[in-house]
Amino acid sequence: MEGTSDIKSVFWLGTSVMLFLAFALVFLVLFYQNHFIKMKRNEAETLLKTALDSEKEERQRIAKDLHDSVQGDLSAIRNFMVILEKQTKDQPTHSLVLETKNAIEKAIENTRTISSKLMPPLLETAGFSAALKDYLTQLSVLSGKEFLFKTDLVAVQLPATFSYELFRVAQEFCQNMLKHGHITQALFALYATTEGISLEIIDDGVAFDFKSAYQQSKGSGLHNIQSRIKSMKAELVQREVTVGNHFVIYLKLSL
């Protein structure tokens, strides 16, 4: 009987040890799996931030080159054409010089516009609110649609990184409205929240579900929005409305 009892004791002890080891193994597998997923997520976020930072730096470089080099060279040529215009007496030649000067002035204006779109100067000098208001005003004139902006944060300066990313998100929404939304009016409203700021985006265009459109989209617009939202660790919420679309971007930061 004692032998049988000893065997049972050894059996249950062995079983307990095996169960413990099995649970420990499962725990270790889950732990390292979660750790691996976390590492991959951090790696993806780092790569995304690096890509967005590189894009920003490249935009700044190209905008500076356009402003300092190309625009400067075109201005010098225009000044030469002004002198040539005054000295030319022959009418056909004078007309040709005048047309050339006008074409150069148009090229200068186009260069200035492209440079501003790449890196809005107001974004660095006056901040997000001023830059977005100026952009929406210009867009209203160019598109014939009504883009409005209001805020209670006029005196508040957002951190430079957030300002740039949020501005690009607003731009992407605007382009999406014009390309797919068929809007007549859109409102961008920047407000303070208990944890930071919110940017509301409201339009009267064609309604769409952002998540579904994002998953099905083959273009870069919605993917750029989602990437920038993720890089800011912000939250994009779509609210239900009867007409058009209503989005809110929540960004946590200390004002």
TrEMBL record:
Cited InterPro entries: HATPase_C_sf, Sensor_HK_TwoCompSys, Sig_transdc_His_kin_sub3_dim/P
Pfam families in the cross-refs: HisKA_3 (PF07730)
MF terms in GO: ATP binding; phosphorelay sensor kinase activity; protein dimerization activity
Sorted UniProt keywords: ATP-binding, Kinase, Membrane, Nucleotide-binding, Phosphoprotein, Transferase, Transmembrane, Transmembrane helix, Two-component regulatory system
Enzyme Commission code: 2.7.13.3
Chemical reaction(s) catalysed: ATP + protein L-histidine = ADP + protein N-phospho-L-histidine
GO CC annotations, alphabetized: membrane
Residue intervals of the Signal transduction histidine kinase subgroup 3 dimerisation and phosphoacceptor domain: 58-121
Stretches that traverse the bilayer: 12-32
PANTHER family attached to this UniProt entry: NITRATE/NITRITE SENSOR PROTEIN NARX-RELATED, NITRATE_NITRITE SENSOR PROTEIN NARQ
Protein name: histidine kinase
